[in-house]
Amino acid sequence: MSSGYQEFQPSAELLPYVECYWLHRFETQGERESPVQRCMPFGTLELILHLDDNRCDALFDGQWEKLPPAFLVGLYRDAVQWKTVGSCRKFGIRLRPESALELFKIPIAPLFNQFTDLESCFGKSINRLVDNVYGLREMRDVVRVVENFLRGLLKNTQSGQRHISEATRLIRQSKGRLSIDALSENLFISKRQLERIFKDHYGTTPKMYQRIIRFRNAYEAFSGMSSAPNWADISYKFGYSDQAHFIRDFKDFTSEVPTYIFQDQYQYFRLPDKQVRFA
């Protein structure tokens, strides 16, 4: 039994829209069940394709449900638990949230903390992408097919929603430390207008997105440490008012304290040390 996670860097022309591609695989003999894995909220969209017939199960409302062959995950604020029975490969396109508007021209507000199968979202034409990656063994080939599909969308890219795209980028660039007041001032719009455009486009508030991004950066910072982190230092570095605030935020997003997450990283999606780049 083996399991692995790997990331692949997008081409330069797609980097404004795609954060990375990733592969998570579980290999075993027969019908052995994988350990339960947990995916953290990263402040991104995930377009996920099963590359083979076997599909994962995810836990929703206390029940394990089989995931669709291909699906789009909206912005999430909760950690998601999943597992598989037998060998399974999932390929993901980790999208910056503004790409839904700029690249795909679809609303994602209804998908906050939700997912949907790709055909419901994009129509039957998306099945060509799903069919073209099915069964491919080499990641170089999978990435090539996906990038050809995405490049086809670049021709009709629109960037008319300047405020929401710029606000999203500014929050990421500040690692979630930019206040909502400062964000409004940077964009020359009122806080009420900022709240409305976030709700209309993403289904959540700028404050929630800011919290998710700060959580992600703090999580990534300590997940790579070899010894127990100093939680007070982590709290200060990422702009939490104090250690209690930091721990409260982590429990809100993961239902666990950060010490447990650090000690039990086996169950959590980990970012690799570096991304693979195809020439």
Key descriptive features of the protein:
279 residues; alpha+beta; Jelly Rolls; Arc Repressor Mutant, subunit A; 2 domains; 4-stranded antiparallel sheet; 10 strands; 39% helix; 19% strand; globular; transcription regulation
**How much is the average pLDDT?**
90
Main beta sheet strand tally, sense and closure: 6 strands, antiparallel
* CATH architecture name of the largest domain: Sandwich
Order of helices and strands: EEEEEEEEEHEHHHHHHHHHH
Total strands: the figure is 10
Top CATH class of the largest domain: Mainly Beta
- β-strand amount: 15-25%
Q: What is Rg?
A: 19 Å
Structural class: alpha+beta
Structure overview:
The chain contains eleven helices and ten strands. The protein has helices at 99-104, 118-122, 127-133, 139-154, 162-173, 180-187, 191-202, 206-223, 231-237, 243-254, 258-263, and strands at 2-8, 18-27, 37-39, 45-50, 57-60, 63-66, 70-73, 80-83, 88-95, 115-117. The strands form two sheets. The protein has a six-stranded antiparallel β-sheet with strand order 1-2-9-4-7-10. It has a four-stranded antiparallel β-sheet with strand order 3-8-5-6, with no helix packed on it. The two termini are 31 Å apart. Strand 5 and strand 6 form a beta hairpin. The mean pLDDT is 90. It has two domains: 2-154, Jelly Rolls, CATH 2.60.120; 162-267, Arc Repressor Mutant, subunit A (Orthogonal Bundle), CATH 1.10.10.60. Helix 5 (162-173) runs parallel beside helix 8. With 279 residues, it is an alpha+beta fold.
